[in-house]
């Protein structure tokens, strides 16, 4: 049974009992994702890490051109 079928059953049950119908599947998805983002930022602050821009900083560090004099040659294969 998928989410839409379950919703139809719940809506039928609510109508028979005189209760309000449940929200459609996916109605609160954006709000849940925002709450998850806020929670992850909060956990980062508690752990002493940057709360915002972590992905961008990591990608910038990963793809930054090598600094002069700081470049090492790759290890030799044996």
Strands, helices and their partners?
Elements: H1 3-17, H2 29-46, H3 54-63
Structure, explained:
The chain is an all-alpha fold. It has a domain at 25-57. The chain has 3 helices and no strands. It has helices spanning 3-17, 29-46, 54-63. It starts with a helix and ends in a 15-residue tail after the last helix.
Brief digest:
By secondary structure, the protein is an all-alpha fold. The chain has helices at residues 3-17, 29-46, 54-63. The mean pLDDT is 84.
* Biggest beta sheet attributes: none
Given the C-alpha coordinates, what overall shape results?
A: elongated
**Helical residues, percent:** 55-70%
Instruction: State the low-pLDDT regions, or none.
Output: none
Gyration radius, rounded: 25 Å
Share of β-strand residues: under 5%
Mean pLDDT: 84
Query: How far apart, in Å, are the first and last alpha carbons?
Result: 57 Å
The number of distinct β-strands equals 0
Indicate the structural class.
Answer: mainly alpha
Question: Number of DSSP helices?
Answer: 3
Element order: H for helix, E for strand = HHH
């Amino acid at each position: 049974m998928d989410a839409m079928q379950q919703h139809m059953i719940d809506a039928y049950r609510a109508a028979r009992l005189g209760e309000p119908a449940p929200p459609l599947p996916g109605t609160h998805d954006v709000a849940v994702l925002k709450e998850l983002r806020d929670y992850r930022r909060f956990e980062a602050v508690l752990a002493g890490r940057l709360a915002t821009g972590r992905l961008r900083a990591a990608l910038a560090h990963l793809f930054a051109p090598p600094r002069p004099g700081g470049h090492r040659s790759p290890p030799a294969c044996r």
